[in-house]
Amino acid sequence: MDRSDVSADLADILLTEQQLGERLDQMAAEIDADYRDQDLLLVGVLKGAVMVMADLARRLHHTVEMDWMAVSSYGSGTKSSGVVRILKDLDTDLTGRNVLIVEDIIDSGLTLSWLVSNLRSRGPRSVEIATMLRKPAAAKVEVDVRYVGFDIPSEFVVGYGLDYAEKYRNLPFVGTLAPHVYGG
Ligand SMILES: O=P(O)(O)OC[C@H]1O[C@H](OP(=O)(O)OP(=O)(O)O)[C@H](O)[C@@H]1O
Ligand code: HPA
Ligand SMILES: [Mg+2]
Q1: Which residue ranges form the domains of the chain, and what is each CATH number?
Q2: Ligand 1 within 6 A of CB of 163
Q3: I need a surface site. Which of 63, 173, 178, 181 has the fewest CB within 10 A?
C-alpha cells in the first residue's frame, strides 16, 4: 500500500472542511459579541488545538493575545491515562485576565477539568472553554463548556489537529480510522 495515501486509512468522514468552517464562523461571532470591549487571552492546548486556534483566531474581529500550553494525557494510544502532565506552561501571567481555553476535543473531560482548575488557581478574571468537538457519552467528569462546535459519538476520531500515534493531524476534516490502522 502507498503509505502516503491517507484515504486508505479512513473509514468515514464525520465532518467536512466546509462544516468545520461554517461552525467556526458562528463560534467566532458569538465570542466577539460576548467579549465586546473586553480583554481576551486565547490559550491553545497543544498539539491538537493548533488548527482550531488558527482558524478561530483569524475569524475574530477582537484584538486578542494568544498563548499555548502543552499537556498530554493520551500519549500514543486511544485512551486517556487520566494523568495530565504539563509539557509546556504559559508565558503569560493570568492575573485579572479573561482566559478562553481553545481545545480540539473534550472526550472523557479529564484533561479540561484538570486544566480549568489549574488556570483558575492563577487569579484570572474569568476562564471559559471553546472546543471544536465534544463526546457527551464519553464524559467521566462534567466540564462547563461555553462554546462547542459539534457533539459527536464516542468513536476515536482523527484529523483537524487530532492524532492517532501523532499521525493524521494535518487532515482538513474529521474522520474515523479503518480498523486495519489500529491492528498495526
Ligand atoms: O477529554 P479527554 O479524555 O481528557 O481528552 C481530550 C484531550 O486529549 C487530546 O490531547 P492529547 O493528550 O492526545 O495530546 P495532543 O493534543 O498533543 O494530541 C485532546 O487534544 C485533548 O487535549
Ligand atoms: O477521539 C479522539 N481522537 C484523537 N485524540 C483524542 N483525544 C481524546 N479523544 C480523541
Ligand atoms: Mg493526541
Answers
A1: 17-152 (3.40.50.2020)
A2: yes
A3: 63
